[in-house]
């Protein structure tokens, strides 16, 4: 009986959201300009990529909630007198953004992000990577048409990437996407 009530409530909510057209699903991809903030060594940024899915849940004319599910590569490079080392970390990132409309075509996006480490290409020899990374996002989204958009976003990591280093992720992203 409780399962039936729950199912009816979920179906009514989904139907209401769909009929009001307050939910749009989309895809996006873009480039990352990633570095590590580390006070002990000087690192250089690397260029990498991100891609994934997003949902836009419109709450009002000028406010929406936008969860995303992205694969994002981040990291940095380091040069010593002889060689250059590259550190590339692959994350599944889940930004949870508040989208505040500044005009009909421009919106501010802010919110937290949880990331889970999937892969690492480790030339820095940093062992004991943390499998979880938490950060905050801030950026702008430009609506080109009703369905096409471009984004610029900065993500500041708040947790250290390894137990052996005081390094945190720092990523600037440029994206393009489409909503369905």
UniProtKB/TrEMBL annotation:
InterPro entries: Beta-barrel_OMP_2 (IPR025665), OMP/PagP_B-barrel (IPR011250)
Record-linked Pfam families: OMP_b-brl_2
Entry superkingdom: Bacteria
Domain Outer membrane protein beta-barrel: 19-161
Protein name stated in the entry: PorT family protein
Organism: Flavobacterium sediminilitoris
